[in-house]
């Protein structure tokens, strides 16, 4: 009896200590990703700006920016932040999805940049903060000719499908406090089937690249071609549903129980 009482008291103490620990603000990833969507909405149609997710020293919470006409991170390249490109000056095109910050290796100053969450409570503030630290203008200027050629062949439908992917992927994980991921980030590096599963996802979504054209959660992946893959088996035509009048929120509601 006394052992049981002591055990309950010990457990209670542990729970109280856990409650006293600083808790991660699960709203921060949501705010950051919403700001990323707004930045992409602003620059994707005109310059082909894209986002890609990758895993670094602090885990899977990194997002980089690139342009469609001269990608640094795709099936042929893994050059995050255009480090091998001859862009004048230091480039700053990578930020975190989990915290307001820019890693030192991706900042103009060469030092880690940290934002104050209290001053970044509104999405509009996050957008301004990111734009002030990302060197988007120099990226666009450096690849001006490539962007001009790309723009001539890129269609409005393609751009709308891309932005729909970003929007739906963000809404899918909003309630979990998580952030969208690329397919390779959703499976264990120690699972021997990971490579085959990622290749299968790419194939079923029409040959898209898992590095920059597919994102989502573990059981629902959204492609930049307007298609979704549910539970690695079922193809859902999101674009057709969107054209018929369904909002991204309504589409996500039907997909959400899979996440």
Written description of the protein model:
The strands form 3 sheets. The chain has a 4-stranded antiparallel beta sheet, with helices on both faces. Strands 1-2-3 form a 3-stranded antiparallel beta sheet. It has helices at residues 2-20, 27-47, 123-133, 136-142, 144-153, 156-173, 194-204, 238-243, 248-255, and strands spanning 49-56, 59-67, 94-96, 101-102, 113-114, 214-216, 220-223, 227-230, 234-237. The longest helix has 21 residues, at 27-47. It starts with a helix and ends with a helix. 43% of the residues lie in helices and 15% in strands. The chain is globular. With 259 residues, it is of the alpha+beta class.
Which short descriptors sum up this protein?
9 helices, globular, 3-stranded antiparallel sheet, alpha+beta, 259 residues, 4-stranded antiparallel sheet
């Amino acid at each position: 009896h006394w052992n049981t009482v002591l055990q309950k008291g010990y457990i209670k103490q542990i729970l109280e200590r856990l409650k006293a620990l600083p808790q991660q603000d699960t709203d921060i990833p949501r705010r950051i990703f919403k700001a990323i969507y707004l930045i992409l909405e602003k620059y994707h149609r005109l310059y082909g700006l894209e986002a890609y997710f990758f895993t670094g020293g602090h885990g899977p919470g990194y997002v980089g920016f690139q342009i469609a006409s001269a990608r640094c991170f795709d099936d042929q390249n893994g050059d995050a932040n255009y480090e091998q490109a001859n862009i004048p000056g230091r480039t700053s095109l990578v930020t975190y999805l989990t915290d307001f910050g820019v890693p030192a290796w991706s900042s103009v100053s060469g030092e880690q940049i940290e934002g104050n969450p209290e001053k970044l409570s509104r999405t509009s503030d996050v957008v301004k903060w990111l734009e002030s630290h990302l060197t988007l203008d120099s990226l666009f200027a450096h690849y001006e000719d490539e962007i001009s050629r790309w723009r001539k062949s890129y269609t409005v439908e393609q751009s709308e499908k891309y932005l729909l992917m970003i929007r739906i992927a963000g809404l899918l994980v909003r309630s979990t406090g998580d952030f969208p991921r690329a397919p390779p980030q959703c499976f264990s590096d120690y699972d021997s089937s990971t490579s085959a599963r990622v290749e299968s996802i790419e194939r079923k979504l029409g040959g898209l690249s898992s590095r920059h054209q597919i994102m989502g959660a573990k059981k629902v992946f959204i492609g930049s071609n307007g298609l979704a893959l549910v539970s690695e088996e079922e193809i859902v035509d999101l674009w057709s549903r969107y054209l018929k009048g369904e909002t991204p929120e309504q589409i996500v509601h039907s997909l959400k129980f899979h996440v």
